[in-house]
Write a structure and sequence with these properties.
Blueprint (H helix, E strand, L loop, with lengths): L9 H22 L17 E14 L2 E14 L3 E5 L6 H9 L7 E15 L5 E7 L16 E4 L3 H4 L6 H12 L5 H14 L5 H6 L7 H13 L5 E5 L7 H18 L2 E6 L2 H7 L2 E6 L2 E7 H6 L4 H8 L49 E2 L5 E2 L10
Parallel strand pairs: 3-8, 3-9, 6-7, 7-8
Antiparallel strand pairs: 1-2, 1-4, 4-5, 9-10, 10-12, 11-12
Length: 385
Amino acid sequence: MAKNPNYLSGKEIRAIAKENAKVMKRLEAYKHRKCDESEYLTEMKDKSNILEIENLNTYFFTEQGVVKAVNGVSLNIPKNATVGIVGESGCGKSVTSMSVMRLIQGPTGQIYSGEIRFNATEKADDDRVVEKVYDIAKMPMRDIHKIRGNQIAMIFQEPMTSLNPVFTIGQQLDEVTFINKKGATKEEAKEKSMEMLNLVGIAAPDRVYAAFPHELSGGMRQRVMIAMALAADPRLIIADESTTALDVTIQAQILDLLRDLKDKIDGSIMLITHDLGIIAEMADYVIVMYAGKVIEQGTAKEIFHNPMHPYTIGLQKSKPTLKSDSDMLFNIPGNVPNPVNMPDHCYFKERCDMCLKKCSGDYPGMVKVSPTHYVACHLYEEDQK
C-alpha cells in the first residue's frame, strides 16, 4: 500500500525535530552574538530607497517540517513613498513586516537568510546628522534598538491587544519618549505625548491622555497607536492591516490621517492590507505576494490598469463592483499549496486557468515588463511573447 504523503511516522518526526534543533540553535546563537557595528553596516544599491529587502527567507521550524513563510522576497521602498503589499491571508505580508522589525518569535521562527538594508540617520557628536545603512537581518538583538521604534515604527492590526489594559494612554505614550530620548523628564514626555495626540486629530487630548484603552472607541485606539508610532519621529512607518477592524467611516479618516502624516514627517509608509480599495487609494507602488513570494510589482497605475499575473487578475475580479452583471462574487478556485512541502514549479499552477506546459518546470523568474513593472510568470518570457 502506498504511503500517505500527509502522514509522518514517529521516526520521521524525530529526525525533523533533531535537524530543526540544530538549525535553530545556530540561528539563535547568531542573533545574540556580540559583534562590532562594522559587521552589519552596508550600502544601499539605490540611494533613493529607504528600505531594500533582497532574497529574504523567514522560516518556521515545526514538527511537520520547515514552513517557508517568506521564501526569497525582494522589494524596495523608495523615500517619501507609500508601498502597498497585497495578497490573501497567509501569503507572507505580515511575516515580511515582522522580519523588518525583528519581531519574529524564536526559536521556532527565524530569519534564515537574505538582506534587509535600511537607510538610517543618526546624530554625530558634533550634532551633525549622518546616514548609516544597516543590514537589519545581520544585526544582533542587543543592537536592534538603534532602529526599532525610533527609525522604523509599526502600527499593529488590532489596537486593543497592542495596548496594555492596566496602564493609561498617557503612561504608554510617555514610555516611547523615555526609551528613545535619554534624560527626558516627565514634563517633556507628557508634552511630546500631547503633541502627538493633537497631531493625529484627537479633539480632547487631555481626556484621552488620562484614559485607559477600554474607555476609547476602536477608531480612537487606532489613532493612539498611530500617535505612539510617530512619537519617535520615524523615517518608515509599517501599517499592518491598521484599518481592518474599523468601520468604513473611521477607516477613511485613518487613511486620510496616514496620508497627511506621511507628508508632515517626510517619511515612507509600508502599507500591508488585503483590501484592494485601500491600495488603490493610498499606494504609489504595489507589491503582490502569493505563498511567500512576490509574484508581481509595479506602480499602482500599472497593477490596477494592466494586471499581468493570473493571480493579480483573479484578485481584481474578486473585488465586488457596482458595474458587475453577475449576482455571484468571483473566487479563485483551489487552495494555496502546503507551505511545508512547496512544489518546484509555479505555486499558482494548480489554480491557474492560463497555465502552459512550461509551468510544470522550474519556478518562473521575474520578467521586466517596463522600468517599474515586473511579473513572475512564464506567460511573459521571451519565448512565449
